[in-house]
Amino acid sequence: MIDFESLIEFEESLCIGYLNDHKILLNNLSLKIEHLRSNEEDHIEISLNEEGSEDEEEDDITSIQSNIEIENKDIITELKQTIDLYDITKDEFLTCIDCGNHLNIPILTKPCCISYKEYTQNLLRNKNSLDYKYWLSFIDNPTRTINSLPYLTEFYLKNKLPQNLRSSIWIKLYLLNLNKIPNSINFIFKNFQHSYNLEISNQISKDLKRTFPNLIFFQNQKTIDDLTIVLNLYSNYDLELGYCQGLIFLVGIIYYNLNQSSKLTFFALTNIMEIEKELHEIFTSNKMKSTLNLWFLQFLRILKEVNLEIYEFFKQDFKIMKIFLFQWWLSFLSSHIPYNGSNIINLIMDFCHFQSWKIGIFKLSLGLLIINKELLSNLDFNKDEEIILQFLLNEDKWNSVLKNIDGFFGELLFSWDDNLFLNLPNEFNKFENSLINDDIDNDEIVNKLNPQQRKLPILSSIKAISQIFKQQQPKIYKRERSNTTTSSIISTISTNSSNTSITNNNNSKLSLFSNTFKNFKIDSNNSIYSTQQEIQKDSENLDNEIDLLTIENEKLKNLLRQSYFMINNRNNGIDEFNVKCLSDEIGKVLDV
């Protein structure tokens, strides 16, 4: 039995002296409820009219791992099973909160890692704790829990979701009080897996091989096969959007955290895109430019209200701001994350699940600018323009967050009035409209997109390095690659499918993984991302070679980290088995 009395008592204590109507949280929940209701009502007759569908549907549900099935069984037993099934050694995203080492790599384990492992593994073991009581209530009925306990819900979001319960929490946020995937999704999942567009399929296959190359999970064939099905199926289902490379970050993380259920991942993707129309539009080629520009002007209004100093800093050239903001938004801020901070990706997704995606992305973007404000203010915008852009495009922007994850995700992102992000304007003054009507020359974009390829002024480089070095340890400036192997700026394509044909506005060669940006252009009349009729074949081959070398380079860096740790800890005794495993891995890479 759930102890509501103690939960309500704590809820009341949290609201003393802290008035908050939780409009964003409750509005997001309301949209989920309405969408789920209409989704099921519109297609309720599908499974009833199709012969054998009831049995097939039951098979589909039971195919999902037992700890994510939400059946009529004892909720306490279900929660216990979920906690017991969590294996921290298989969680590739989880890093030690103190040293940043990945907890699934035994060789890198330090005393702080062991302590954090024990803490994480034992979360929610105490049935008398308030934490346990809250999440028990949430798993039992998320709609009732959020509506009745909004202060407590925000409290636990600020303190980060429990690692061993994240999958169940996400599933509940998608299914709410249903005990199965809607009939309409079962029908679509069964009937749309055919006649895939060849060009889209090839692009998906290419992108999947170079997504999160440091994580073994995303190199497994089953993962690649399941994500291939989900992305191809969605391109058949959503003819307007088709396939867009930025979706791969979202779909990959959802699949990882939904216990590798491809059907549930597909349902989650359709759920997100259908609830938040504007998010859908920034990935749709014929609406991408206008929607991104709308977001940009709305974001500027918020930034000006929250932090005038940062607004004035970028006012010197808002085109710079558009470049890095568009990259952040089109990759769900997940394309450039430090190796020792991969858990940030889960925290980003947690936050957006509860706050909604557009508002979540806006708050995260605002937070990143504010937390790096001191560093940016030490640079001269006119002289250090390229350094500023490179810093905000690569993984280094997260280093300040890593130094205070709790402060960023638990305090800063909740420090603004909800009303700032609700009822955003759609009409703007003459100056604001002029910011989205600019034409940027091709060469100018190339230089800004790939600053690593240019020779920065020596004085400016030294100045930037010295300022960053003072504020962030270890030195973070000018790493050549991030953990996701993306280049300095995302170049996102949206490939529309219509039956089995494709309309791509000549965008198919552009890739967020590609280093070729010579054809990237923003202009007021064409799609925000356009390219020439054809890109020379040797350029494409060169990109493929660079991608393969980058992935290999990431693997080598990971082996070096492990070797470095082993050498520095040889006096403490090293397990011979670990030495043999590392030697074998190095041998495979060196082919010896």
Q: Would you kindly provide a brief summary of this structure?
A:
It contains 30 helices and three strands. It has helices at residues 4-14, 23-42, 46-49, 53-63, 75-85, 111-121, 130-140, 142-148, 150-158, 166-175, 183-191, 198-208, 221-237, 247-257, 262-275, 277-281, 285-306, 308-314, 318-330, 343-355, 357-371, 373-377, 385-393, 399-402, 405-410, 430-434, 442-449, 458-471, 537-568, 576-590; strands spanning 243-244, 494-498, 501-503. Strand 2 and strand 3 (501-503) form a beta hairpin.
Could you name the CATH topology of the largest domain? Cyclin A, domain 1
Distance between the termini: 60 Å
Number of domains: 4
- From the coordinates shown, what is the CATH architecture of the largest domain? Orthogonal Bundle
Helix content: 55-70%
Largest beta sheet: what is the strand line-up? 1-2-3
Summing up helix and strand content along with how strands pair, one would put the structural category as: mainly alpha
Q: What is the beta-strand fraction?
A: under 5%
Report on the biggest sheet: 3 strands, antiparallel
Poorly predicted ranges (pLDDT <50, ≥5 residues)?
42-72, 440-493, 497-539
Number of strands: 3
Annotation field: number of helices: 30
Mean pLDDT score: 76
State the name of the first-level CATH class of the largest domain: Mainly Alpha
Rg of Cα set: 24 Å
Shape: globular
